[in-house]
Q: What sequence folds into this?
């Protein structure tokens, strides 16, 4: 693949809503992935006998990066409201759980007073339970996700004032 064509392909993925692209041609394997408007590129040479294929990944549907969200707001002519307070975000992709067990009380609820380092919830990823701790002292003003809901990396989970 010529360098100019490679640059055009990278730009096309950057400008689109795709989150990834895999492409093989003449022994060269190309894999592009995008995270929050950043494009990462990996190129690998494959043996001459392997088949050529191309596949595109669908865009993430449960959480749009902030840049895409604000661009959509501008086109609609309305300004997206900025959340006040401190936002605790998910450090990984997984499933959000508000309590340590199904029959247990949630770690915190709206109005709960929290301290820095206190466990707020759990995000399960690949059968591992990851405790989500508060980075702030304050009161839980809002829980932004439902129990059992899938969450994305960087997705807001709590608003603490």
A:
């Amino acid at each position: 693949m010529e360098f100019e064509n490679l640059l055009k392909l990278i730009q096309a993925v950057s400008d689109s809503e795709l989150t990834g692209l895999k492409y093989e041609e003449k022994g060269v394997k190309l894999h592009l992935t995008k995270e929050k408007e950043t494009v990462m590129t990996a190129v690998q040479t494959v043996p001459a006998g392997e088949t050529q294929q191309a596949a595109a990944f669908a865009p993430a549907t449960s959480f749009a990066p902030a840049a895409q969200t604000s661009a959509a707001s501008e086109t609609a002519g309305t300004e997206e409201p900025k959340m006040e307070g401190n936002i605790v975000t998910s450090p990984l992709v997984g499933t959000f759980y508000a309590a340590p067990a199904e029959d247990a009380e949630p770690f915190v609820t709206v109005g709960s007073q929290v301290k820095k380092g206190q466990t707020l919830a759990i995000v399960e990823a690949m059968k591992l339970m990851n405790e989500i701790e508060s980075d702030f002292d304050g009161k839980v003003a809002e829980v932004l996700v439902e129990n059992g809901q899938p969450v994305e990396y960087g997705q807001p989970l709590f608003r603490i004032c």
The two ends are 53 Å apart (CA to CA).
